[in-house]
Amino acid sequence: MASIKDVAAAAGVSVATVSRVLNSHPSVSPDARARVLGAVDSLGYRPNAVARSLRTAQTRTLGLVISDVLNPYFTELARSVEEEARALGYSVIIGNADEQPDIQDHHVRTLVDRRIDGLLVSPTDGGSPLMLEAARAGTPMVFVDRWIPGVDVPVVRSDGRAAVRDLVAHLHALGHRRLAIIAGPAATTTGSERVEAFREALAAYGISLPDAYIGQGDFQADSGRRATERFLALSEPPEVVFAADNLMALGALDAIRAAGLRVPHDIGLAAFDDIPWFVHTDPPVTAIAQPTKELGRAAVRALIDRIEGRPPQSVTLPARLVVRRSCGETKSPAPAPADTPTATTSTRRNP
Amino acid sequence: MASIKDVAAAAGVSVATVSRVLNSHPSVSPDARARVLGAVDSLGYRPNAVARSLRTAQTRTLGLVISDVLNPYFTELARSVEEEARALGYSVIIGNADEQPDIQDHHVRTLVDRRIDGLLVSPTDGGSPLMLEAARAGTPMVFVDRWIPGVDVPVVRSDGRAAVRDLVAHLHALGHRRLAIIAGPAATTTGSERVEAFREALAAYGISLPDAYIGQGDFQADSGRRATERFLALSEPPEVVFAADNLMALGALDAIRAAGLRVPHDIGLAAFDDIPWFVHTDPPVTAIAQPTKELGRAAVRALIDRIEGRPPQSVTLPARLVVRRSCGETKSPAPAPADTPTATTSTRRNP
DNA sequence: CACCGTCATGGAATCGATTACACGGAGAAT
DNA sequence: ATTCTCCGTGTAATCGATTCCATGACGGTG
């Protein structure tokens, strides 16, 4: 592969001049520029990004470590991250942790070894020493969706509290009182927050959330299936199951079907994270939708702010309830979902 | 960030010795090794992969350019590619083309600029000059799923011909005779092949495939919706619609529902590419399943063979029919799907 | 005409690793 | 005792770019 030296030789100039032409430095004569450009495309020369990165100490690359690519929510997030990054002149390397802390660490390590300019993370756990170390060592970093409390890193996420209240209001209006939740791992913020938001919303109606109605899941379909089986085996099973992510809802649907029951007739189902398929399931699933695309864009912008020396901002965007048929038919219209979502931004790093 | 020089200074040896320790070169004294290792972890030293790549002219990184990350088929493919690559000591950089040739070119260009060791591509179109040039210039390359005829690059893909025959037999047994297909772009192999396989299978039953029954799609949900609307507007609409990928099937489902019709009562639906959600749609969708995971692994192995100088093999794995309820209830059992899938491999590059 | 500032250009250092080569010392072979 | 090997180690070149500094030409000004 042709190097800058070959171009210099072919154009009859020095490598310095070639470099100037390629980086559009002002002081190059039109004649030299023309000869260099000619040589460049007759040789099919492409600058070596590896060498350039070594010299300039920047790679114009962002790392994105997500918990599970197979989860459509994260896929969409990854896509919007890449899109925004590309628009701003950066590439993205995606690492899929598959909800496993050691794989997550593997990706963080290789990304840092490659000297990516910044790291976007949706942590699988409460924070491995490696990641905390990377943050402390000054790797520009931003958390998306999930975050680690007590670490000085900006967070871009969505607040589901209001939407969960809307959901509970909806369920209450339909006459449901025995409400259960399938939670995510307690070590993740989204795992614990969603349970808390649910518990608070229930309390407003004087409904309690007994331990038997809290299923312990891990954001994967299988765990949703097992938790649901356990609910169904109770002497007094819940009337509605709320899954803290879309894959566990899928598992719940499996379990309900396997038990020969029907949604919503025998039991209701709702999910956190809306996805296109929920429109087409039997029945369509009521879900809480995050502004995924905006989240991805905001995260990239925050990270690039941090990289380029501007003060990064934590961002919290509201989620909203999308009512469908999986919790029962509503006679009267459901409570209007918040339809004027307003972003709240703060300069505090950790909201 | 600490460099190899800092480690050398801290350990009281030369950089050469440090390098030898890190690359487990045999001739280093136990004493020196211990001092180096001590310095490495007291400094938290991590080798700079950029510098190493520049010197060794290899990045231990593979590029994967896929047509659409949001398509669950490609997501799964990407995941298995990354998994296998990681097991073999390589990283993967994913580029999402979103079915747009210019974005595809953008990714090919940046990946080549980064001097990735090899490229896995599922081309969006018939082959841009850039990609053909890269192949000819000797970038190790393997096509997955889709390929470009006439280019000397190994292909790892799945053959759906037999499964399509099974599907048509199934539909015929259910009494359906007016069968339509929503095709992908003719510029992609999977776009044209699936139509051809369908046409041939129909011919075996003396059924023809009129132009009005061929919808032109682009592998996106919207195009499936539009094609289906057009089918439904025909004076004699088809009895079954076969979508050439899962997203177009989703669009078809939308259009059918919007028209106030029911699947399979009013019209049947089948899809190429099986995904977990098809079990839960209303009704569950009959689909042709590719061995996606195996495809990804085989592609990585072929590419690494090529990179490491072994002769790479093209691989073709069979797809199989998964019968569900979206084409009508079967009284008698459907024809047995091929349940002993056998791989065919060849040393010819382009099958 | 002398001087100075500006501009185009090239030489060479540099980034952080790997590795060929040279060298000194210890132990084996004669 | 002398020579030969082999081993551990260091010096320095190298990969392909960017960029500081020096240089020479040229034009304008006093």
TrEMBL record, chains A, B:
Which UniProt keywords are present, listed alphabetically?
A: DNA-binding, Repressor, Transcription, Transcription regulation
Instruction: Name the Gene Ontology molecular function terms of this record.
Output: DNA-binding transcription factor activity; transcription cis-regulatory region binding
- Residue ranges for the region (Disordered) are 326-351
Looking at the record, the residues that make up the HTH lacI-type domain are 2-56
Q: Does the keyword Transcription regulation apply?
A: yes
* Any single Pfam family the record assigns to this protein: Peripla_BP_3
Q: Which InterPro entries match?
A: HTH_LacI (IPR000843), LacI/GalR-like_sensor (IPR046335), Lambda_DNA-bd_dom_sf (IPR010982), Peripla_BP_I (IPR028082)
Q: Which PROSITE patterns match?
A: HTH_LACI_1, HTH_LACI_2
UniProt entry tagged with the keyword Ligase: no
Note the PANTHER family from the entry.
HTH-TYPE TRANSCRIPTIONAL REPRESSOR PURR-RELATED, LACI-RELATED TRANSCRIPTIONAL REPRESSOR
This protein is called what?
LacI family transcriptional regulator
State the organism of origin: Streptomyces sp. NBC_00119
